[in-house]
Design brief:
With about 350 residues, the chain is mostly helical. Helices cover about 65% and strands about 5% of the residues.
Length: about 350
């Protein structure tokens, strides 16, 4: 487990002076050149209005992060590169790749999936982080803590702290809005990306393992792991004062294996699907069930809303209800040509 992989220096030597990388520095300049070139290329292919509505906001968000957000994360040694954040980016890339492969089989081009992935990823991050900040608001907005520091910690996604279920409303809204703009069948699009989302989740859980969050309870199994001092689990289950944690379930790796198996199952089920939406419905059914089983092992979330269940378990029950409704809806019309 390694939360911080390395640090990026805030500036690089250049003659008698240092050139800043972050803020209004070299990285922002490079992004403006590269992003501007990509925007012009997309405008030439799809028109200025399409490029502005679909790529303008993501490009602007990245520019804002480079100019203001990343400099605020400087811990004195530079910008820390967290294992969690790296795995999050790898997860997004892998999930997008699988979605592109699947989409091509039904006649949806790669540019469309890349545009969709950008919107869904960014809005999913917003929802997942917002859910986490609300759930653990006391650690962000503690009494006496400066507001600027609280806001800085709230946007520090690379340090860890995302609730997967929190991303669902914002990501689903972004996907539905995208499908309507492009005139694409929402359920067919959902079938294309559902296994990719699970693949991304599997890789993202490895980031949770590196970060030491989303942990399980103590156990004495041969594969139990001890997390180093400074992680959440070490603070909750210390082996000794200031030391590592007692051996606990590597619940993050259980979740990674679970998501990878579900992704493979969704891909294998695709040729058997009779209608658009059945692959997505399968994912919407099985993932909440496996998550509820994992919640019996995880101990990082307290019971919520006066029930013995965690907030994630309660959301899982809500998703199962939605899955039942979707299966009912799919069973009503006659079967179409929804094969991938």
């Amino acid at each position: 487990m390694r939360s911080t992989l390395f640090h990026i220096p805030r500036a690089i030597p250049w003659g008698q002076e240092d050139l800043p990388l972050f803020g209004f520095g070299l990285l922002l300049l490079a992004w403006l050149v590269a992003g501007g070139g990509w925007f012009v290329w997309m405008a030439s292919r799809h028109g200025l209005r399409v490029a502005a509505t679909q790529f303008g906001l993501p490009l602007a968000i990245v520019a804002v992060m480079l100019a203001w957000v990343l400099p605020a994360l400087d811990d004195g040694a530079g910008i820390p590169v967290r294992g969690y954040g790296v795995m999050l980016l790898v997860a997004a890339a892998a999930g997008t790749w699988l979605s592109v492969v699947r989409a091509r089989r039904v006649g949806i081009d790669a540019d469309t999936i890349l545009a969709l992935a950008t919107e869904v990823f960014l809005w999913g991050l917003v929802g997942a982080r917002l859910f986490y900040v609300i759930e653990y608001r006391e650690q962000f907005f503690a009494p006496g803590k400066p507001l600027a520091e609280s806001l800085r910690d709230a946007v520090n996604i690379a340090a860890g702290g995302l609730v997967v279920f929190g991303s669902l409303p914002t990501a689903a809204w972004a996907g539905w809005r995208f499908a309507r703009r492009r005139g694409l069948p929402p359920l067919k699009l959902a079938d294309c990306v559902a296994p990719g989302m699970l693949l991304g989740l599997a890789i993202g859980r490895v980031g949770c393992f590196l970060n030491g969050c989303c942990y399980g309870g103590p156990c004495d199994l041969p594969w139990a792991v001890s997390f180093p001092a400074g992680t959440e689990v070490a603070a909750k289950y210390p082996l000794a004062a200031g030391g590592a944690s007692v051996p606990v379930h590597p619940a993050q790796l259980y979740a990674a294996i679970d998501a990878a198996l579900l992704a493979a199952l969704a891909v294998a089920f695709t040729p058997l699907a009779r209608r658009d939406g059945e692959v997505f419905a399968l994912v919407l059914t099985l993932h909440p069930i496996s998550r509820m089983l994992l919640e019996e092992i995880r101990v990082d979330e307290p019971p919520a809303l006066g029930t013995p269940l965690s907030i994630s378990a309660l959301v899982s029950l809500a998703l199962l209800t939605l899955a039942a409704g979707l299966w009912w809806w799919l069973a009503r019309p006659p079967a179409g040509d929804g094969r991938l």
